[in-house]
Structures are given as C-alpha cells and as structure tokens.
C-alpha cells in the first residue's frame, strides 16, 4: 500500500491535503493493490473530513472496488458520510420547468419525423467507429482550445487554399469562442471530474463512462442538453453523415459544433449495444413545476416530444423531493401570497426498448434510482 493510502485510512488531514495538491484526477481515482480507491478507504474507515476533501478535489463516486464490487456509497460507515454523496435538493436534475426547452408540442408529422431521425442516428452509429465517436466527444469537451488551434492552424496552412484548409481555419476561429461558452460554465472541480470520465471512455472504448459523465454530480448534463435543444432537435437540420466518410476526417474531427457532438451522445445512448443491459421498460417519475399559463397550451391528447435527455426515478419519492412537494411556501408567489407555480409529478410509462436506460448501478448517486429517458 502507498503512503497516500495510509494517510487517507488514518485520517491524516495535513498529509492528505499535501498529496492532493500534487495529484491528477487519474491519480486520485487510482485503485490501490487491494482494489479500492482513496475515497473507498476514507468511506470505509469513516473519515468524513477526508471524504469531503477528496470530493472537493474531484474524486469519482462511481468507481467500484475490484474485490467486493462495492461503490463508495455502499462502503460508507455512517449516514452522515452517505449524505455527502446525495445531489443537492436545489438541483433541477429530476424536475421539469415547462418554460424551458426540454419539451415541445408536436403534430403527427413531426412525430413521424422524429422516428425517422432516430433511424438516422442508428445509421450514423452503424457506419461509424465507436472509438472515433467517443474520441470526438472527449476531444470536444476537454481538450485545450489553444492546443487545438495551434495544431490545426498548422494543418490548414499545409493544406494551402484547399476547401479543407479554409474549413479548418474558419471553424477554429468559431471554436475558440464556442468552446469557452459551452464549457466555461463548469468549475475546475467539476471539469476535473468530467475530464476523468471522458478520458477513461477513450482509453477503454467504453460508453458507460460517457453515461457516468452525464449523470455525475456536476452540471455537465445541463451543457449537453442545452446543445441538444438549441437547434439539433428543433429543426432536424443535423447532418454529419458525410463527416465520417470524407477525406481528412481525422484532420477535421475537432470542428464539429455543439449540436453534432450532442447528437453523438444521443446516437451512442440510444443505439450502442454495450448499453443494451441497461434498457428500461416500465414506469418512472419526474418532478415538474407548472403555472396556469403553462397549462393553457396543453390539452388532453396533445403530442409532446422531449428534445433532451430527461432524468427520472423509479421512485416517486425522489421525483417529489426534487419537485418541492410539501414546500409550497418556497415556490414563486404573487405579492399577495397567491401561488404562481405549483409542484406536480410526471409519470412516464416507457414502452419501447432503448427509449430509456436504468443507470442506478453506474450512477454516482445510486439512491436516486435514476432512469435516463432518451430524446425524441
């Protein structure tokens, strides 16, 4: 065992802080010879302060130890430590705001088009290499903009005035801004967590790490869903079918825009056979905050299509908690104390295979019993 292991086990705070200043995300999440990570060790021995320190440094809650196949949540010695792994009550993970872009009213023609679009995502997945897809997602979200800019400007110069050179040069100018906008809202701590998951996904060619990045206790899911809802599913204009076929594909892989990369998320989540064991067909629940104005645009028989991934739970209690049940006084009210919005519960009956994934076993917060509903 390393000195680091014993510092975490023996609750040596000062040593632990010193080690953490020098460790990368991969080092923090490395399994010791007994198959446990530093976070496993701290949880097992009930060292709450060490647990807090590791979580602040971006330690992953999703890793299982190799000997007992247990998560850190399962190995935690106390209820107080387990509470550290729960998502904050103010998270909007399991709640819907109808004024946002996660839903849209559709007619029968759009509903039919959405089915065709899912088939199109299947064709993209079938003709693409999984490693390429995962690498594209990873490079888009975690690679430093300046490194990409320097490398690809050199490539574009070598290509001269060809169409590829012009494409690279113009796209990189945009990428300098869009990458900052899309990823700048993530803190250094959360960025380290996402970097670790996406790097593992590439190294092991395993989409489960992509799922874990999405479902992590960060705001990464908000960024992915924003990219999905902006234009991709609004207008069904996404078309990168030639991106995997044209010459120089490895030279232009980093010039995808947000919707295209989010589309790769959807293609993998919906169609990758490695995720088939997680397919969910049953009932699940999601909280909702709704106003009278929201209700006016809906009626019985309305066709509604979700444009993003939606997090639901197999447990009503979880959805009710995030919807603020029993906390009516905390919801938005008029100056004369009349409610503007109300807490409600959405019940989803999942009937089609791969329309949802049950991911509690690979989630960082297993007690939520999360079900991830697919877009479209």
From TrEMBL:
SMART domains documented for this protein: ANK
GO cellular component: BRCA1-A complex; BRCA1-BARD1 complex
Highest taxon in the source lineage: Eukaryota
GO annotation (BP), single: protein K6-linked ubiquitination
Database matches in Pfam families: Ank_2
Repeat (ANK) residue spans along the chain: 34-66
A single GO molecular function term of this UniProt record: ubiquitin-protein transferase activity
Gene3D superfamilies reported for this sequence: Ankyrin repeat-containing domain, Toxin ADP-ribosyltransferase, Chain A, domain 1
Keyword terms: ANK repeat, Repeat
Protein name: Ankyrin repeat protein
Source organism: Didymodactylos carnosus
